[in-house]
Amino acid sequence: MTQLLKIIPWLLIALLGAFALSAIAVNRGENISALWFITAALCVYALAYRFYAAWLAATVLVIDETRATPAERLDNGRDFIPTHKWIVFGHHFAAIAGPGPLVGPTLAAQFGYLPGTLWIILGAVIGGCVQDMVILFLSTRRNARSLGQMARDELGPLGGTAALIGTFTIMIILIAVLGLVVVNAMKHSPWATFTVSATIPIAIIVGVYMRYLRPGQVMEGSLIGVVLLLLSVVAGRFIDANETLRLVFDREGLTLAWWVMAYGFAAAILPVWLLLAPRDYLSTYMKAGTITLLAVAIITLQPTIKMPAITPFIDGTGPIFGGKLFPFVFITIACGAISGFHALIASGTTPKLLSNERDIRMIGYGGMLLESFVAIMAMIAATVLEPGVFFAINSGVGVVGADAATAVAKISSWGYPVTVEHMQLLAKQMGEESLFARTGGAPSLAVGMASIFGSAFGESLLALWYHFAIMFEAIFILTTLDAGTRVGRFMLQDILGNIWPKMGETSWTPSVILTSALVVSGWGYFLYIGVIDPNGGVNILWPLFGIANQMLAAIALCVATGILIKSGKQKYAWVTGLPLTWLIIITSTAAYQKITSTDIRIGFFAAANDLSDKLAAGSLSVEKAHIAPQLIFNLQFDAWLTVFFISLLWLIVFDMLRVAVRTLNGQPVLPLTESPHSPSRLVEDWVRD
Amino acid sequence: MPNCFKKAWRLLRRLSGDDAYEQYLSHYALKHSGNDEHPLLSKAEFFKQWQDEKWNGIKRCC
């Protein structure tokens, strides 16, 4: 009887979830409430967490509550500290949730709401959450070693090197594409540029406060910073209204790109307390606050989804990025469904805090579920816009033309009516000059969020909400940008240190300047090309980033699958093997198409050849002919980069298969590096906190 | 109810690192008291080291 009482609620959740999913899936032509998305997602998450994650923990990983974690054994009161699970959850989530799950779904909405939504929900419960949880477990059992170290220890030097190179290159591409998103959001928008610029001095004020005025008073300092940030959003309106001041902040994309590069360089060489650490506090509070606000607004207001379930662009003709539904929806939405980058946080950082293995399920699996939910909200914010408006904001001038009348005519001809007047009114409401061709995802997400918040708190505040949303996105994009540049610098110093030990000294100024400059010019190059690209740049860079991120996930899953097989759990190797196979299929297909496709909107070489033919024939405008050689070189470079990514992926897959086959044949392989069992002495008494 | 607020406040302080020095003090009292090799750090010194260490690695993701 009690057994039955336990099962009934789960049956109801399953029924509700199935009903919500089918409501989303079969809906055609009618407007559907966003509440169905939330319901479907939450029901699937609950079931997956209750059953699949519990089974993974108990049967596959065999979590041992009596085993002391590295945090307990190596407790040093600093980075290794046994910490309460909710605190670890907070740190872990703050680390994994960046701008990725917001931008990806926005771009993927060009296929309609359905494909992206299904991938976000199912990809997370079967792929992303499993990856995060298994890697967290493996690293916890290995003294909190990093993914690269685990790859080297368990698979061999080849796997280790591949993981290191993979991490470094993905970092470069990631920073470039995020930089491009910020630049596109600030381009010719004095208000946004002012607010985003203001975050730098505000971070410095907070940094100085925490370091010298009131050392260690993190909460006080952050609170001051948050208030100043909100004031800067309001102040932006006055800057925008002032004829002289607005000129200072009204800038071309290229100028802003140079500013962003200068900022990245400064952040990498300046001490962390001055800029990076205080900015991170601010961005974390902003992120937590805004995401909660968005969730509350969506649940209480239940906005209507205006985008159709599926658009004709699944055939690959989409204006935001080229490529068919398969494989590109799975490449475009990386974070939110499965993100290789998380494996870097789940190994190394989070395990140092874990007080008991029991918490692995909640932090690894649960943390990723929450990230997936953020992606669902981004999808909702993108699809509550009229499709015509959505496409007008996100289509580059190279696709729809620079002239407003031509653009609306073209977009309306696709079956998504929109008028110049409507776009002008919307731009005016948002306090912007124009909303046409504001590619990158940030402006359309901000319009979506502003319209959701606006209907809750009054239409008159739309412009404030829009710029608040832009500031919110920009602040943590810049946090990823500066933290990433710094990590890239450390990695490069580490690599160069193997050749010339002096370069490896992280505090030797010439080395710091040289490696920082190298990292910044690495991503700065892609950012520069992205800005001068008439198609918006995001259409090239985002798929490249997606391929790189999925490749890193595949590397992590290779390490996980290899270790499962080595530990005699080949029966369960499918839990990581299945998402791994899927990732290999989608990244290989996407890479193959990016390299060989004859469609100039997909194939890098095809686009390069087309452009050089046009250049030779003299059919390009003077302006375009001027930048064409750089664009041609970049397209060829991107193609070779894709070849490199995919070779790296297959290299590590074969390395994993080699280890697996040898293990199954009883041949010698590298020994498991799991640290020996030592009993936990921690008492379950968190009252003392 | 006040207990609940207290708990939330503690959670927030722990999450933000506001109480890192207090944690260090209790760790110090437990493991290193009376040890000359590890002199007790002042709050400002501790915060300096803690912050530098915290940002020495991949801490933020996409």
In short:
Chain A is mainly α.
What would you say this structure looks like, in words?
The complex is a heterodimer of chains A (689) and B (62). In chain A, strands 1-2 form a two-stranded antiparallel sheet. In chain A, helix 10 packs across helix 13 (276-301), helix 16 (360-383) packs across helix 21 and helix 21 (442-457) packs antiparallel against helix 22 (462-499). Chain A has a single domain (2-188, 251-664), classed as Amino acid/polyamine transporter I (Up-down Bundle), CATH 1.20.1740.10. Chain A starts with a helix and ends in a 25-residue tail after the last helix. Chain A contains 27 helices and 2 strands. Chain A is globular and about 70 Å long. With 689 residues, chain A is mostly helical. With 62 residues, chain B is mainly alpha-helical. Chain B has one domain (2-54). Chain B has helices spanning 2-16, 20-31, 43-54. Chain B is flat and about 45 Å long. The N and C termini of chain B lie far apart (38 Å). Classes of the chains: A mainly alpha (689), B mainly alpha (62). The interface between A and B is large, with 53 and 35 residues.
Which SSEs are present, and which pair or pack?
The complex is a heterodimer of chains A (689) and B (62).
Chain A lengths: L1 H25 L5 E2 H27 L9 H4 L11 H12 L3 H9 L4 H28 L6 H8 L2 H30 L3 H24 L4 H24 L1 H7 L3 H17 L6 H26 L2 E2 L19 H8 L9 H8 L10 H24 L3 H8 L2 H4 L3 H10 L6 H10 L12 H16 L4 H38 L9 H24 L5 H29 L7 H23 L7 H14 L4 H43 L25
Antiparallel strand pairs in A: 1-2
Helix pairs in contact in A: 1-2, 2-6, 2-16, 4-16, 5-16, 6-15, 6-16, 6-24, 6-25, 7-8, 7-24, 8-12, 8-22, 8-23, 8-24, 8-27, 9-10, 9-11, 9-13, 9-22, 10-13, 10-22, 12-22, 12-23, 13-21, 13-22, 14-24, 14-25, 16-21, 21-22, 22-23, 24-25, 24-27, 25-27, 26-27
Chain B lengths: L1 H15 L3 H12 L11 H12 L8
